[in-house]
Structures are given as structure tokens and as C-alpha cells.
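The following block was generated as part of the benchmark described in Methods. Ligand: heme C.
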Amino acid sequence: MRKSIPALAAAAVAVAISVTSVASAAPRVTDPGLTVFTSAGCAACHILVAAKAKGMVGPNLDQLKPSTARVAAQVKKGGGGMPSYKSTLSAAQIKAVASFVAKNAGRKK
Ligand code: HEC
């Protein structure tokens, strides 16, 4: 394979799609951003009830209620003890996880 980065990105998308289609047996289609949130390890460091995440390393996202832009910026650059995901997540995955967090932070379920 000549171009390994697009190939990796395509593989990641394929994994995300297959995970999503397995989960689609549930009544509600799984948000692709939820898949990124759990598979990228965000849950290990953050509380987010909508993702059943109970991590205590970083801020509680249900209390912070960050905007999509704020989540995307933090995920790209990391910092303050959080890793940067710029080289491990695709732009589409960052967008998906950012809108998932912005939409679901502060929700009870
Ligand atoms: C190793 C632990 C760790 C992981 C994994 C992690 N974070 Fe963080 N996160 C942190 C810490 C610590 C901070 C606080 C950074 C600071 O105060 O500068 C933070 C801050 C944040 C913030 C707040 C940024 C702001 O503007 O205040 C958001 C949103 C966030 N993380 C989302 C995520 C998402 C989404 C993921 C998964 C892609 C993730 N984090 C993965 C530890 C982590």
C-alpha cells in the first residue's frame, strides 16, 4: 500500500461502521460520536452519563457542557494532561465525537 495514512483512516471508518451496524440492533441507532468516545478512551478520563463514562482524570463533561468547537479544539490539540488526537482520529471522527459531547453533556441519560 502506497499511502498508509488514508488506508488507516479508511480502516478506522470501516471499523466504526461495522461497530455501528452491530449496535443498530438496539432501538436507537448508535451515534457514531459515541463509538469514537468509547473507542478512543475519552471515557477513561471523563464523566459523561450519556456514554456511561465515569473517568475522573479530566473535567466532568456533564458539568462543563462544552460547545462542539470547544470539544473539537481540545481533542485536536490536547494539553493539560490530555493527549492530542490529531494523528489518531480522522477529521470526521473528531467532528462526530465533538458534536456527540456537545449534544449530550448535561443530559440525564
Ligand atoms: C488521559 C486522560 C484523558 C483522555 C483519554 C481524554 N481527556 Fe479530555 N481532558 C483531560 C484533562 C486532564 C483535561 C483538562 C485539560 C486542562 O485543564 O487544560 C481534559 C479536558 C477536556 C475538555 C475540556 C476542554 C476545555 O476547553 O476546557 C474536553 C471537552 C475534553 N477533554 C474532551 C475529551 C474527549 C472528547 C476525549 C476523547 C477523544 C478526551 N477528552 C480524552 C484528560 C483526558
